Amino acid sequence: MSEKKPKNIFVAGPISPVKIGEDIAHHQKKTQIGAHSIFMGQVRADQLENGEVVAIEYTAHEAMALTQMHEIREEIFAQYPLTCLHITHSLGLVGVGEICLFVFASSVHRHEAIKACEVVVERIKKELPIWGKEIFANEGHQWKENRP
User: 105 forms bridges with which residues in the sheet?
Assistant: First the structure.
């Protein structure tokens, strides 16, 4: 593992479309890149047994999550020939329709970018100590279970 300091992946509240646009636009000058793969997780208005979801409140063991994400990043860069990998995850309240996870992988060729992006998303969901509390329209709540 490299001696680089773990990057902060967290933002308070929803991930703004402006931030996403700026991240994408910044890469236009990197002309060795031939492909980008982007995943954006959005809060759904699920109709569950306990009510309609109107938001998710995300919490995390931040220090542990950042350390684990750093290790995942290092493994992904060792496995795939990426040019860039950006990860942003929300903390706090995110309403339905808003973006809570943004993964942006870049490489010379599309296959590597697509596969790396998919692997990163799956590993975030399975390995990072990040939890979501679904908030219902009726003011109730329940802890979210990650679904495939």
Answer: 37, 85
CA 109 to CA 118: how far, in whole Å? 15
Q: Report CA-CA distances (Å) from 116 to 62, 67, 82, 122, 140.
A: 23, 19, 8, 10, 37
Question: What is the signed CA dihedral for 6, 16, 132, 63, rounded to 10 degrees?
Answer: 20
Q: What is the pTM of this model?
A: 0.92
Measured CA to CA, the distance from residue 3 to residue 56 in angstroms comes to 34
Q: Which DSSP state fits 74? A: H
* Structural domain boundaries, residue 67: 10-143
Q: What is the pLDDT of residues 116-133, one digit of tens each?
A: 999 999 999 999 999 999
The number of domains in the chain is 1
Q: Which residue has the tokens 């799956």?
A: 122
Residue 88 within any structural domain of the chain: yes
Other C-beta atoms closer than 10 Å to the C-beta of 71 total: 14
Task: Please identify which residue in the block is written with the tokens 């903390």.
Answer: 91
Under a CB-based contact definition with an 8 Å cutoff, are residues 115 and 109 in contact? no
CATH code for the domain of 121: 3.90.1170.40
Residue 148 in domain: no
